[in-house]
Amino acid sequence: MSALVVVNPHATGVDRARRDWLLDALRGVTRTEVAQTTGRGHAVALARDAMRGRTVDVVVALGGDGTVNEVANGLLSDGTHDGVPALGVVPGGATNVFARSLGLPRDFRAAAHVLRCHVRTARYRTIGVGRVDERYFLFAAGVGLDAAIVADVEEQRLRGRRSSLSRTAGTAVRHLLVPSRAELRLERTGFRARDGIRWLVVANSDPWTYMGHRPLRATPRASFDTRLDLYARRTTHPVALIRSAVRMAGRTPHEPRAGELVAHDVDRFTVHSDRPVPVHVDGDPLGHHGHLRFASVPRALRVLAPPPLAQEEPA
Hints:
Elements: E1 2-7, H1 16-26, E2 31-36, H2 42-53, E3 58-63, H3 65-75, E4 86-91, H4 97-101, H5 108-121, E5 123-132, E6 135-137, E7 140-143, H6 145-158, H7 165-177, E8 184-187, E9 194-197, E10 199-203, E11 209-211, E12 214-216, E13 228-233, H8 238-248, E14 260-266, E15 268-281, E16 284-304, E17 313-314
Parallel strand pairs: 1-2, 1-3, 3-4, 4-16
Antiparallel strand pairs: 5-6, 5-16, 5-17, 7-10, 7-15, 8-9, 8-15, 10-13, 11-12, 13-14, 15-16
């Protein structure tokens, strides 16, 4: 087996020592190439070239959720087909939602060991992904509030401020105090259109995200093995949002209350806005949009990860 390791040297938990540790872990079980990203979109290009050149069996992302998302989009540049290499993930970001949702260890060395084991046995898990317009996402996309927070945090990072839970929380508070006035309209074939939505989360897995060690479960039935789940709100009043966040962080599944909408196993839908609103995929800002087309893409990627149940699929 041959592998390309795509390294984001600017990710929170990535340095030369960890990169070398990963390469040592893969030594003897795969022929490995290494490429470091130099900026936004570079991981997409690296993974796309590897896929089209049929040069590797696995592309491993060493970085945060944004790096993993770019690698996945590169692998799926030509859609789903038999020539798409498998995706490997070693968490190197601040939150690592996708890796944790797959059941991978948070500890870097343990995650590298798990990856080595899956490379050696050449066994994979096949997952579905989501797509908004032409961009794929692995665990979640957001329209409105969380996308505005993500964009603000990313802008701070580009100004040299390192990401942290406290900085993200402070940014969230600022956006809660000055809510957007934009309203969304959600349309699904065969269903009544929903108007007056202020914030929409589109989930491809559970949990939606993490607050430190605590998972936030907005859509507890979401899964990589089903289609998309939706969580929508008609109000972003700070008190209501805090109460919802407390319920999402609880031990029992989150049940929708007044002003909330939850839908499970949705194939496709469109979102319209009366003004451009911020959008993100897997924590990566996509800018502002007024019209969006969402779709589920089942069984899109093979991923080197623990199986969801006792039995996993052979390569």
